[in-house]
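Something for you to look into today, if you have time. I want to see for myself how the chain folds. Leave the record below and I will have a look.
***
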Amino acid sequence: MGSNSLDTQVAIPRGNGVVPLYLDGKSVTTEQTFDVTSPLTNSVCWKAASASQQDALAAVASAAQAFQSWRKTKPRQRRDIFIRAHDILKQRYNQFKKSSQTETGASEGMFDFEYGLAMELLLYTAGVVATVEGTLPSIDGDSSYAMVMKEPYGVVLAIAPWNAPYVLGLRASIAPLAAGNTVVLKGPELAPATYHNFVDALHEAGLPPGCLNTVFHRPADAARITQLLIEQPEIRKVNFTGSSNVGSIVAGLCGRNLKPCLLELGGKAPAIVCGDADLELAAKTCLFGAFHHAGQICMSTERIIVASSVLKEFRAHLRTAAKSLHIQQLVASAPVEKNKKLVDDAISKGARTLFEAPNIEVANPSQMYPVVIEDVTPDMQLFATESFGPTVSLYTVESDEEAIRLANNTEYGLSASVFTRDLARGFKFAREIVSGAVHINGPTIHDEPGLPHGGAKSSGFAPGPPPSPTGAAPPKVPVVATLHTGPGSSMEEESTEDRDQRIRALWKRLDGAGDGQIDLHGLKKGLKKIDHPLKNADSLLQEVLTAVDTSGDGQIQFNEFRVFVEHAERELWQLFESIDKDHSGALDKEELRAAFKRAGLTISSAKLDQFFDEVDTNHDGEISFEEWRDFLLFVPAGVSNLRAILSYYSATANVNQEGDVHINDTLQGFENLIPDPGYFIAGGMAGIVSRTATAPLDRLKVYLIAQTKPNEATVQAAKKRSLLQAVRGFGRPLIDACKDLWRAGGLRSLFAGNGLNVAKVMPESAIKFGAYESAKRFLGKIEGEDPHHLHPTAQFLAGGFGGVVSQCVVYPLDTLKFRMQCETVEGGLHGNALIAQTARKMWTQGRFWPFYRGLGMGLAGMFPYSAIDLFIFENAKWWWQARRARELNIHEDDVEMNNLVTASIGASSGAISATAVYPLNLLRTRLQAQGTVLHPPTYTGIVDVTRKTIQQEGFRGLFKGVTPNLLKVAPAVGISYVVYENSKAFRVGPTVGHEYNKGGG
């Protein structure tokens, strides 16, 4: 079990910084509060409201009032509430996990186990809520009939614990609610936020106010508040889950007040290992039953009873399995002290531990190493006391009868296990053991919504069927037999000898020097030899070495390697089984997708396909456990959860953060910042198509910009407030310009300079998009973010950078194009002759200098233009994809952007950015075109062209030609983005293959 870390950003429902009570459908805080301490940090994580006697009475009164209407609701109404609550719990998995782990210290495996069971319970209850049946008993009399109908009790007091808060808290609440009762839920002081979470979810799902009220209180008020609640006449039944000591007190109070109660109490669960058992399976299962959730489950295995004929071999399997155990996180320091005292007492009286805990100081007082202790006798406290922690006792017996006597030699009777290959023998044990449930070849920890759950003796009252004619209510005892013969049991079917041979063979391949030890260099060479995905990931290799090298000498010995491999395989097997929902022994793509979604990880179909193809080495469309194990064996530190696996895959597979470039993430050099050549090709194609399609509009824009005379007719009409005349005057220059251009050379004139424009635009567009992608990656590395979702400032800078770089490279061609367009007149030169003449003129005027006139103004305009354009496009595109992803319930990367949407977004971003910087663009163009036929004036620089433009044409002159510019820019940019996005999808460049790290790293 890995260590947990406290997330200080845990989002919990609370008012004024305090976890509130839930009274009459509202969150209520109180004057008195109590501290809630996280076992992960041993510090206060938050406070909780502490109910007074008045608050407790208010909860009862509210529930009694709500009962009058709730009891009349139809089953389908209750069903729908439970289904909606299930969906809410599914959506809030991550939030609820954080608060639960913070309060209880539960491992990820434990949380997933009980949270999944809680969601199943909601659906199961929704399914059976309408199946409650009455009876028609026979009575005397020809014309008389009797009906026995089941009616709700009224207000039920539910008292539930902290150790499996979602499943136990929900079970205590929704079972009575489903039957038409209302509930006062007294939650534990150790997990108030967790209880508030699911109560809030039920109310959000439609549960009416007052039907479920919560009461939390300070530990010191427990006895007083509990007694007060039970004594209230409105409370008609009590449901208690907790320790046997407290359960006996609750039962006494219920007895004095003549109220029925359901009690699910403590346990001292035995696991019997027969001489014919699968000893390896039994050893691993017993340790799971003993140490899952650090033994803090009432069904936890407390006693392992082994046939003497197999004791030696079983003990060896137990020692081997125990090597994978880690330090256990408990809910507080008190249970740690309790377990240590029980162990110390037993050792002082002759007991001994099966293996020694590592000689490492445990800094957290709420943690301890697991203990397997043998030679425990009745005079030791541990023999009879429920440890409720990571301590299990090992006993030896000579016969089945002795095993049954020892199993029953306890005041408890909650759960038991039997390991045997003989099913008839297993059922014989099940009939003889006094227990609420018996599991054959399975752990003592087992619970399902459809199984009755309860105990015998001091473990409580098991729920049973309706009273029989004799008045007896025999308890239902589920017997669960697990037969490990199906296709999903590949790991269990591998013998110890076969596994040892396989691990030794792997070691031999890694230990190239054959000297029995492997250092970092040797590990890297060995992984290259077997072509493992980690072979080039140096930083991850160091993590692996640190995890395996428990002695800390920088060398991996075979024993260290074997322990690591066996532990990692067990973790991977448990994860594999949890994903394999159809128990086929193989994973398909949909099972993986569902597992990632349950873990709160939404990945695109493309990335899922890549991951699946990498793991499915024989490409049969399924992932076997062997493929799963071999690919993921060296997940650093053996942290085998889906989040760690996805991180591991992203760091080793040849996929960058964007999921589209074949580059290993461990690369730190400049080559990791160079984008796929496909980006340049896509950008170039986008430039060619968009500029050619809009060349006539570009020609018209330049013509109008070159004209410096103000439109006097339009100005005078505007002054006289003659709108129609002003509009006509505004349109006249456009019409005249079109006529002039047509006279200058017909259709050919409208495309004057387009060849040069294409020669300029292709590299400009390619460099712009390529530089933009590079800048995104560079800034993404600095921020540690996905380049797709940079901080807005970084995204703005990346867009500006792309524009500036491209402008610098192609500026001479840009200037030549503008001057050439301004030299195209009626009867003048055209084509290559005009290009040559324009270039000679510029060279004669000042060699290189005329080609760079207005560069400063150009860069000043290009940076905001490109930044605004790309920023708006990327964010609008992301917003659209996010919205569609929510509507379709898919990953954003799987949303298909149709060309119309892309063009619309691109046109909008281009129009906005072009309008914002148009004055700068106009001034730059005039600097470039000065001294030409269409624009004879000359300027000394930026200040001069600005001053003259405003003097001659007013501020309106700065926007001359803006209309054709918009008519050109909007479609040009829209077309550009459509071509770019489509070209990018089919770009030329490396693709993700099936082999690891092709291309180095």
